[in-house]
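ok new one. same drill as before - structure tokens go in, u give me an amino acid for every spot. 274 of them this time. try not to just spam alanines like last time pls lmao
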């Protein structure tokens, strides 16, 4: 299943006007359960953050979280870094166009990235599963945080976060993982806590996201539409009607997932403090 071509196609549609880009961010915030968990964690961190704050978005992509952070507080300076120059240029252009001047974007290889004691908060969403040298990256994050700073990570878990353990996946049918470019299936709670401790963090905590309600929501709101769009782009016409039916269910399921605690889940959120 090809994910990136669909992502690029949607990006072009929503990039045609600033109001559409903002609408795209809003839809991602509502549909993507990980965004619910990230925004909740940012609000909790915010209670301890006074005055000016330097924030790094490590793997900024479309700039969804940079937009959220930049709008949330004008005293926060947000730096988004990514390895895709196309997305960096796109974000710099869009944020300049809408006048959010407390945000900037640049290139960075996270395995080599280090800005000693520069950031109060580092967020890293859907990135670590793509990087083989993860312990090196965690160490770089630790060095780049100010004392008392926090790292916030969202990543697939080892409970099937890359959809490779899904019950409808069969090796003999020639199908692949939902996201083919992952270097690992995901993290376990003990695994990620051990790696964060090894990187120098004095305290860390991790919990599962995408429990049973969240996993069902993800299938309704993300997996099935992308399966359809991979079949034919004609499904772009049907998509609004599909979401009209499924959207309310996804919202309720996301809410339940964020409010509950899960013994297992296909996603994982980790926080670590310097």
């Amino acid at each position: 299943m090809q994910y990136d071509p669909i992502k690029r196609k949607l990006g072009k549609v929503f990039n045609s006007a600033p109001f559409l880009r903002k609408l795209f961010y809003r839809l991602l915030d509502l549909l993507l359960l990980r965004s619910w968990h990230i925004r909740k964690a940012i609000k909790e961190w915010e209670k301890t953050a006074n005055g000016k704050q330097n924030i790094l978005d490590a793997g900024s992509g479309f700039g969804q979280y940079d937009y959220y952070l930049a709008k949330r507080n004008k005293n926060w300076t947000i730096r988004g870094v990514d390895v895709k120059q196309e997305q960096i240029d796109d974000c710099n252009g869009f944020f300049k166009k809408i006048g959010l001047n407390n945000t900037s974007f640049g290139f960075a290889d996270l395995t080599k990235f280090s800005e000693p004691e520069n950031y109060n908060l580092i967020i890293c969403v859907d990135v670590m599963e793509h990087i083989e040298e993860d312990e090196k990256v965690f160490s770089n994050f630790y060095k780049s945080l100010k004392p008392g700073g926090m790292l916030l990570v969202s990543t697939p878990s080892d409970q099937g976060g890359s959809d490779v353990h899904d019950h409808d996946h069969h090796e003999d049918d020639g199908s692949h993982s939902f996201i083919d470019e992952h270097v690992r299936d995901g993290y376990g709670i003990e695994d990620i806590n051990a790696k964060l401790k090894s990187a120098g963090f004095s305290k860390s905590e991790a919990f599962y996201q995408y429990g049973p309600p969240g996993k069902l929501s993800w299938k309704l709101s993300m997996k099935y539409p992308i399966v359809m769009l991979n079949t034919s782009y004609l499904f772009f016409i049907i998509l609004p009607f599909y979401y009209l039916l499924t959207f309310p269910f996804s919202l309720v399921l996301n809410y339940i997932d964020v409010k509950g605690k899960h013994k297992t889940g296909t996603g994982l959120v980790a926080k670590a403090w310097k």
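DSSP finds nine helices and seven strands in the chain. and btw The longest strand covers residues 145-156.
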